[in-house]
Amino acid sequence: MTKKITIEPVTRVEGHGKVTIHQDENLNIAQSRLHIVEFRGFERFVQGRPYWEAPVLVQRLCGICPVSHHLAAAKALDVIVGAGTGDGLTPTGEKMRRLMHYGQMFQSHSLHFFHLAAPDLLFGYDADPAIRNVIGLAITPEFKGLAVQAVMMRKFGQEIIRATAGKKVHGTGAIPGGINKHLTQAEKDEFLHGKDPLNIDKMIEWAQASVDLFKGYHKANAEFIDNFSVFPSNHLSLVRKDGALDLYHGVLRAVDSEGKRILNDVDYQDYGKYIAEEVRSWSYMKFPFLIDLGKEKGWYRVGPLARLNTCDFIPTPMAQKEFEIYKAYTNGKPNNMCMHMHWARLIELLHSAEMIKELLNDPDLMSGELTTKGQKRKEGVGLIEAPRGTLFHHYAINDDDQITMANLIVSTTNNNEPMNQGVNFVAKKMMTGQKEITEGMRNAVEVVIRAYDPCLSCATHALGKMPLDIKLIDNNDEVISELKS
Amino acid sequence: MSKKIVATTSLAGCFGCHMSLLDIDERILDLIELVEFNKSPIDDIKTFTKQCDIGIIEGGCCNSENVHVLKEFRKNCKILVSVGECAIMGGLPALRNGIDIKECIDEAYLNGPTAKIGNPEGILPNDDELPMILDKVYPCHEIVKIDYFLPGCAPRADLIWNALVALVTGNALELPYEVVKFD
Ligand code: SF4
After folding, report:
1. What is this model's ipTM?
2. pTM higher than 0.90 for the full model?
């Protein structure tokens, strides 16, 4: 008898998925799968649209980090309009986009940690679901301050996005070859010196406090955080040419679980030489891998954990200090502990706040040429480090400026195999020998998915969305235990 | 006055409308004084645990699962509100409505440059666990009765806030021109 467990929907995971877990007759876990059940068809239906629509169209894949899609598409179109890759823009064009991006990082990391992940840590993953959420935080006196802080941090990031992109969700600021507005003096003053708590110094202070909160939690719960889900993998991200963490632009680097370079700072315009995607019949989400290493060994992780494994240093002082502490914990080796993703995320939150401050003090934001262009081209690739990892956009156009091909590899898709591995790891640990799934077990599975991504919605641009059912299935394919949405 | 009960869901949407709901910022703390949340992706409640007063729907219907969830919402909520272009008229995902679904699938899994190399066997997703894709993306009101519509992509946070407060308190809804936007 194999049993099958299904979890759906994954809540506090923005997007729709489903998990099935198969047990053999000895109640051992035979197989676990995270199915992405939505498909949209973006690659096909953007064909024929004028290319300049891409940054506003394609961001509608994901309303949680639309800025990432907005900018990745704009970067691909920079190449097409002859503005070069990333470093070819005017100072104003590049810096306004960077401000938008770090604002987005700041709001998204705050949301991811406080609204979606922290409830599991603060209340316990097996606490009452009615309370195990951000509203639960807000109505629990002990955590109310934290909930208010979470709301205000997200608000600050969203306001930066509004000031640079024109609108909080689905803005229009980035255009092929640059940006369409400057920052005003009033906006700058507001961000730098706004009424407490909505100013950048407070945000930096709170970001540092968030890192400290995690470190304190880790100290008290090291056993859980270190062992909840841990397995070796490759790691991939952009890094600046000198090896610094850079979330907006750089070269493509990958390391293996021991830290050996397996992709050595290559130009991402050539991504197609290095990366391919496998299709499996049970998920609408594809499985990317490094061609050189093949399907079995070539899969990799992206996101905060991967970024801090690939980069050599962080180019802002407070985050660099935290980076050194973080790296020392694994003796400088790549970190393969899933729950450390939150630690890495909060260090990036701090880095983003520091970057925002640096940019706000830059006069280039308030004047200077907005756009540039050069020799037109027929094809372009745009990469960016979205909050949840490397995001690939690739477009080709025809003589009438219509899109003829669009290829998107979103962050969550890059993490498809790691999420499946994580689910399998937790299922083996918690469900071996169990005949019934408890709510706590189900949430444990979700906790590991949430470490990567509360953002399955964008990965489903390929068609279908993701509520998480969990089904326990026996070896006769009978469902013996099921928790449904 | 007992609290009104609110449930929310995202069907074939991008979660941008949910994000816009969160963009009411500190008013979210006032909101939880006014309402109690039931089934919603923001919390951990996966199935309706009681009858709700207001159901907020983001996204249209692109597969059998969406239709099922929407019908559940109609059954369990007194008032349903379509929030955003996707719920109201299919939105961006409905751009596929003029195209054969097979073409969309082939492009994603067979023809795309990275899939072409990685999927020489030509495998397509077709497992029993995956819901049926509908021929078109349908607006919600073509599937069930919808009581109110809030336009925008995403609707402004102020519009969502004003509408919710009006529904919860029973006062007339004031809609200043500036908060109603269609992009
Ligand atoms: S209406 Fe716009 S913001 Fe809302 S779900 Fe649809 S695409 Fe996203």
Report:
1. 0.93
2. yes
